Protein backbone atom coordinates (compact mmCIF):
# COMPACT_ATOMS: atom_id res chain seq x y z
CA UNK A 1 0.00 0.00 0.00
CA UNK A 2 2.84 2.34 0.86
CA UNK A 3 4.39 1.50 -2.50
CA UNK A 4 1.20 2.33 -4.25
CA UNK A 5 1.00 5.61 -2.38
CA UNK A 6 4.50 6.51 -3.65
CA UNK A 7 3.58 5.48 -7.20
CA UNK A 8 0.45 7.58 -7.20
CA UNK A 9 2.25 10.56 -5.67
CA UNK A 10 4.95 10.30 -8.36
CA UNK A 11 2.27 10.14 -11.06
CA UNK A 12 0.58 13.24 -9.68
CA UNK A 13 3.88 15.15 -9.56
CA UNK A 14 4.75 14.12 -13.13
CA UNK A 15 1.37 15.23 -14.50
CA UNK A 16 1.44 18.47 -12.52
CA UNK A 17 4.88 19.16 -14.03
CA UNK A 18 3.50 18.55 -17.53
CA UNK A 19 0.62 20.92 -16.83
CA UNK A 20 2.98 23.59 -15.51
CA UNK A 21 5.28 23.25 -18.53
CA UNK A 22 2.37 23.40 -20.96
CA UNK A 23 1.02 26.51 -19.22
CA UNK A 24 4.44 28.17 -19.28
CA UNK A 25 4.58 27.66 -23.06
CA UNK A 26 1.48 29.78 -23.55
CA UNK A 27 1.70 32.11 -20.54
CA UNK A 28 -1.18 30.58 -18.66
CA UNK A 29 -1.49 30.27 -14.90
CA UNK A 30 -1.38 26.56 -13.94
CA UNK A 31 -4.00 27.21 -11.27
CA UNK A 32 -6.47 27.85 -14.12
CA UNK A 33 -6.18 24.22 -15.25
CA UNK A 34 -7.75 21.61 -12.99
CA UNK A 35 -6.22 18.13 -12.94
CA UNK A 36 -9.17 15.75 -12.86
CA UNK A 37 -8.08 12.15 -12.24
CA UNK A 38 -10.18 9.52 -14.01
CA UNK A 39 -10.32 6.55 -11.65
CA UNK A 40 -12.35 4.20 -13.87
CA UNK A 41 -11.33 0.54 -13.45
CA UNK A 42 -8.96 1.50 -10.61
CA UNK A 43 -9.99 0.53 -7.06
CA UNK A 44 -11.52 2.85 -4.50
CA UNK A 45 -8.20 2.70 -2.61
CA UNK A 46 -6.53 4.61 -5.48
CA UNK A 47 -9.25 7.24 -5.37
CA UNK A 48 -8.62 7.57 -1.63
CA UNK A 49 -4.86 8.08 -2.24
CA UNK A 50 -5.60 10.80 -4.80
CA UNK A 51 -8.00 12.58 -2.46
CA UNK A 52 -5.43 12.39 0.35
CA UNK A 53 -2.97 14.08 -2.04
CA UNK A 54 -5.46 16.92 -2.36
CA UNK A 55 -7.15 15.92 -5.61
CA UNK A 56 -10.74 15.97 -4.41
CA UNK A 57 -12.37 16.22 -7.84
CA UNK A 58 -12.42 12.72 -9.33
CA UNK A 59 -14.08 11.25 -12.41
CA UNK A 60 -15.74 8.01 -13.42
CA UNK A 61 -17.23 6.94 -16.73
CA UNK A 62 -19.82 4.26 -15.78
CA UNK A 63 -22.65 4.55 -13.30
CA UNK A 64 -22.52 0.85 -12.33
CA UNK A 65 -18.88 1.11 -11.32
CA UNK A 66 -19.04 4.61 -9.84
CA UNK A 67 -21.98 4.11 -7.47
CA UNK A 68 -20.27 1.57 -5.17
CA UNK A 69 -16.86 3.29 -5.51
CA UNK A 70 -18.26 6.66 -4.49
CA UNK A 71 -19.86 5.04 -1.47
CA UNK A 72 -16.65 3.21 -0.53
CA UNK A 73 -14.55 6.37 -0.78
CA UNK A 74 -17.10 8.22 1.34
CA UNK A 75 -16.80 5.57 4.03
CA UNK A 76 -12.98 5.52 3.90
CA UNK A 77 -12.69 9.31 4.02
CA UNK A 78 -15.49 10.59 6.19
CA UNK A 79 -15.54 14.37 6.29
CA UNK A 80 -13.66 14.77 2.99
CA UNK A 81 -15.86 16.40 0.38
CA UNK A 82 -14.91 14.49 -2.78
CA UNK A 83 -16.62 15.88 -5.88
CA UNK A 84 -17.37 13.23 -8.48
CA UNK A 85 -17.61 13.97 -12.19
CA UNK A 86 -19.39 11.69 -14.66
CA UNK A 87 -17.41 11.78 -17.91
CA UNK A 88 -18.78 8.73 -19.75
CA UNK A 89 -21.64 8.10 -22.08
CA UNK A 90 -24.84 8.19 -20.08
CA UNK A 91 -28.13 6.46 -20.80
CA UNK A 92 -31.26 8.26 -19.66
CA UNK A 93 -32.30 5.33 -17.45
CA UNK A 94 -29.15 5.94 -15.37
CA UNK A 95 -29.99 9.59 -14.65
CA UNK A 96 -31.61 8.87 -11.29
CA UNK A 97 -28.63 6.94 -10.05
CA UNK A 98 -26.06 9.46 -11.32
CA UNK A 99 -27.98 12.34 -9.71
CA UNK A 100 -27.30 10.71 -6.33
CA UNK A 101 -23.49 10.68 -6.61
CA UNK A 102 -22.34 13.18 -9.24
CA UNK A 103 -21.53 16.82 -8.60
CA UNK A 104 -20.84 17.33 -12.28
CA UNK A 105 -21.95 15.52 -15.44
CA UNK A 106 -19.55 16.35 -18.28
CA UNK A 107 -21.22 14.16 -20.89
CA UNK A 108 -24.61 15.73 -21.55
CA UNK A 109 -25.23 15.41 -25.27
CA UNK A 110 -28.97 15.61 -25.93
CA UNK A 111 -32.05 17.54 -24.80
CA UNK A 112 -33.66 14.26 -23.72
CA UNK A 113 -30.74 13.43 -21.44
CA UNK A 114 -30.81 16.98 -20.02
CA UNK A 115 -34.54 16.57 -19.29
CA UNK A 116 -33.98 13.23 -17.57
CA UNK A 117 -31.15 14.64 -15.45
CA UNK A 118 -33.19 17.70 -14.44
CA UNK A 119 -36.05 15.45 -13.30
CA UNK A 120 -33.62 13.15 -11.47
CA UNK A 121 -31.95 16.08 -9.70
CA UNK A 122 -35.34 17.41 -8.67
CA UNK A 123 -36.23 14.03 -7.11
CA UNK A 124 -32.82 13.72 -5.43
CA UNK A 125 -33.17 17.22 -3.95
CA UNK A 126 -36.63 16.37 -2.63
CA UNK A 127 -35.43 13.07 -1.17
CA UNK A 128 -32.43 14.73 0.48
CA UNK A 129 -30.00 12.68 -1.65
CA UNK A 130 -28.33 15.88 -2.84
CA UNK A 131 -28.36 19.50 -1.79
CA UNK A 132 -27.41 21.51 -4.87
CA UNK A 133 -28.11 21.72 -8.59
CA UNK A 134 -26.04 19.60 -10.96
CA UNK A 135 -23.17 21.24 -12.85
CA UNK A 136 -23.36 20.22 -16.47
CA UNK A 137 -20.93 20.29 -19.36
CA UNK A 138 -22.11 19.64 -22.87
CA UNK A 139 -20.05 16.99 -24.57
CA UNK A 140 -19.32 18.12 -28.10
CA UNK A 141 -18.87 15.64 -30.94
CA UNK A 142 -16.13 17.31 -32.96
CA UNK A 143 -16.40 14.91 -35.90
CA UNK A 144 -20.17 14.40 -35.75
CA UNK A 145 -19.77 10.64 -35.27
CA UNK A 146 -22.91 9.82 -33.24
CA UNK A 147 -21.53 6.37 -32.34
CA UNK A 148 -19.05 7.85 -29.89
CA UNK A 149 -21.45 10.20 -28.12
CA UNK A 150 -21.43 13.95 -27.99
CA UNK A 151 -23.66 16.66 -29.39
CA UNK A 152 -23.09 17.69 -33.01
CA UNK A 153 -21.54 21.17 -33.21
CA UNK A 154 -24.55 22.70 -34.92
CA UNK A 155 -26.83 21.56 -32.07
CA UNK A 156 -24.68 22.80 -29.20
CA UNK A 157 -26.22 26.30 -29.00
CA UNK A 158 -29.78 24.98 -28.68
CA UNK A 159 -28.75 22.36 -26.12
CA UNK A 160 -26.87 25.00 -24.10
CA UNK A 161 -29.96 27.23 -24.10
CA UNK A 162 -32.10 24.29 -22.97
CA UNK A 163 -29.75 23.35 -20.12
CA UNK A 164 -29.47 26.98 -19.02
CA UNK A 165 -33.26 27.24 -18.70
CA UNK A 166 -33.43 24.42 -16.13
CA UNK A 167 -33.15 25.44 -12.49
CA UNK A 168 -31.89 21.95 -11.53
CA UNK A 169 -28.94 22.21 -13.93
CA UNK A 170 -26.10 24.71 -14.05
CA UNK A 171 -24.41 25.09 -17.44
CA UNK A 172 -20.68 25.10 -16.65
CA UNK A 173 -19.12 24.65 -20.08
CA UNK A 174 -18.13 22.16 -22.75
CA UNK A 175 -16.23 18.88 -22.88
CA UNK A 176 -14.77 16.94 -25.78
CA UNK A 177 -12.51 14.05 -26.63
CA UNK A 178 -10.23 14.44 -29.66
CA UNK A 179 -11.63 12.16 -32.39
CA UNK A 180 -9.51 9.12 -33.22
CA UNK A 181 -7.00 9.90 -35.92
CA UNK A 182 -7.32 13.68 -35.64
CA UNK A 183 -4.30 15.78 -34.72
CA UNK A 184 -5.14 17.06 -31.22
CA UNK A 185 -4.35 20.67 -32.22
CA UNK A 186 -7.01 20.51 -34.90
CA UNK A 187 -9.57 19.02 -32.51
CA UNK A 188 -8.97 21.46 -29.67
CA UNK A 189 -8.79 24.49 -31.96
CA UNK A 190 -12.26 23.58 -33.21
CA UNK A 191 -13.52 23.02 -29.66
CA UNK A 192 -12.12 26.40 -28.58
CA UNK A 193 -14.19 28.10 -31.30
CA UNK A 194 -17.39 26.37 -30.19
CA UNK A 195 -16.51 27.20 -26.58
CA UNK A 196 -16.05 30.90 -27.36
CA UNK A 197 -19.47 31.03 -29.00
CA UNK A 198 -21.09 29.23 -26.07
CA UNK A 199 -19.48 31.57 -23.57
CA UNK A 200 -20.71 34.59 -25.51
CA UNK A 201 -24.25 33.29 -25.12
CA UNK A 202 -23.76 32.03 -21.53
CA UNK A 203 -21.06 33.93 -19.62
CA UNK A 204 -21.28 31.42 -16.75
CA UNK A 205 -20.11 28.59 -19.02
CA UNK A 206 -16.44 29.00 -18.17
CA UNK A 207 -15.14 25.44 -18.27
CA UNK A 208 -13.51 23.80 -21.28
CA UNK A 209 -12.78 20.19 -20.36
CA UNK A 210 -10.24 18.88 -22.86
CA UNK A 211 -7.07 16.86 -22.82
CA UNK A 212 -6.19 13.40 -21.53
CA UNK A 213 -2.93 11.57 -20.84
CA UNK A 214 -1.74 11.72 -24.43
CA UNK A 215 -2.81 15.19 -25.52
CA UNK A 216 -3.10 17.45 -22.49
CA UNK A 217 -0.38 19.85 -23.71
CA UNK A 218 -2.29 20.59 -26.90
CA UNK A 219 -5.54 21.04 -24.98
CA UNK A 220 -3.92 23.50 -22.56
CA UNK A 221 -2.49 25.47 -25.47
CA UNK A 222 -6.04 25.85 -26.78
CA UNK A 223 -7.52 26.98 -23.49
CA UNK A 224 -8.52 23.84 -21.59
CA UNK A 225 -9.51 24.52 -17.98
CA UNK A 226 -9.77 20.82 -17.01
CA UNK A 227 -7.60 17.91 -18.09
CA UNK A 228 -9.05 14.43 -17.46
CA UNK A 229 -6.18 12.08 -16.80
CA UNK A 230 -6.15 8.36 -16.06
CA UNK A 231 -3.18 6.32 -17.23
CA UNK A 232 -0.53 9.04 -16.85
CA UNK A 233 -1.43 9.22 -13.15
CA UNK A 234 -2.29 5.66 -12.22
CA UNK A 235 -0.64 3.47 -14.86
CA UNK A 236 -2.26 1.05 -17.26
CA UNK A 237 -5.90 0.42 -16.50
CA UNK A 238 -6.86 -3.05 -15.29
CA UNK A 239 -8.96 -4.74 -17.99
CA UNK A 240 -11.97 -5.22 -15.73
CA UNK A 241 -13.55 -3.14 -13.02
CA UNK A 242 -12.55 -3.86 -9.41
C1 LIG B 1 -10.76 7.30 -19.54
C2 LIG B 1 -11.09 8.71 -19.90
C3 LIG B 1 -10.12 9.72 -19.80
C4 LIG B 1 -8.69 9.47 -19.33
O1 LIG B 1 -8.00 8.79 -20.33
P1 LIG B 1 -6.40 8.51 -20.18
O2 LIG B 1 -5.96 8.34 -21.57
O3 LIG B 1 -6.26 7.29 -19.34
O4 LIG B 1 -5.80 9.71 -19.53
C5 LIG B 1 -10.50 11.01 -20.12
N1 LIG B 1 -11.75 11.30 -20.53
C6 LIG B 1 -12.69 10.36 -20.64
C7 LIG B 1 -14.05 10.75 -21.11
C8 LIG B 1 -12.39 9.04 -20.34
O5 LIG B 1 -13.35 8.10 -20.47
What do these coordinates show?
Helices cover 45% and strands 17% of the residues. The model has no long low-confidence stretch (mean pLDDT 96). Strand 4, helix 5 (111-127) and strand 5 (134-141) form a beta-alpha-beta unit. The strands form two sheets. Strands 2, 3, 4, 5, 6, 7 and 8 form a seven-stranded parallel sheet that branches. The protein has one domain (2-232): Alanine racemase (TIM Barrel). It is globular. With 242 residues, it is α/β, with parallel strands linked by helices. The chain has helices at residues 2-25, 44-52, 63-76, 95-101, 111-127, 156-164, 184-201, 216-221, 231-234, and strands at 34-37, 57-60, 83-86, 104-108, 134-141, 151-152, 169-175, 207-209, 226-229. Helix 4 packs across helix 5 and helix 6 (156-164) crosses helix 7. Bound molecules: pyridoxal-5'-phosphate.
Quickly list its features.
single chain; 242 residues; alpha/beta; 9 helices; 17% strand; binds pyridoxal-5'-phosphate
Q: Which ranges are low-confidence, i.e. pLDDT below 50, for 5 or more consecutive residues?
A: none
Q: Biggest sheet: strands, sense, closure?
A: 7 strands, parallel
**H/E series:** HEHEHEHEHEEHEHEHEH
CATH class: Alpha Beta
Tally the helices.
9
What is the structure about, briefly put?
The protein has a single domain (2-232), classed as Alanine racemase (TIM Barrel), CATH 3.20.20.10. It is 45% helix and 17% strand.
Give the arrangement of secondary structure elements.
Blueprint: H1 2-25, E1 34-37, H2 44-52, E2 57-60, H3 63-76, E3 83-86, H4 95-101, E4 104-108, H5 111-127, E5 134-141, E6 151-152, H6 156-164, E7 169-175, H7 184-201, E8 207-209, H8 216-221, E9 226-229, H9 231-234
Parallel strand pairs: 1-9, 2-3, 3-4, 4-5, 5-6, 5-7, 7-8
The structure holds pyridoxal-5'-phosphate.
Pyridoxal-5'-phosphate binds next to strand 9 and helix 9.
Amino acid sequence: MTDRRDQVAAGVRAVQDRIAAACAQVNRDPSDVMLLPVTKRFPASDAVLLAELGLVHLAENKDQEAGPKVQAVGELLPGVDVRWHMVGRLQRNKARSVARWASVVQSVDSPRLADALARAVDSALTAGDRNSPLDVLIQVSLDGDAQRGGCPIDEVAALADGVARKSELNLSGLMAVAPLGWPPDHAFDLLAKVFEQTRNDHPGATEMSAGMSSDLESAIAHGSTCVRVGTALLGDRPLTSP
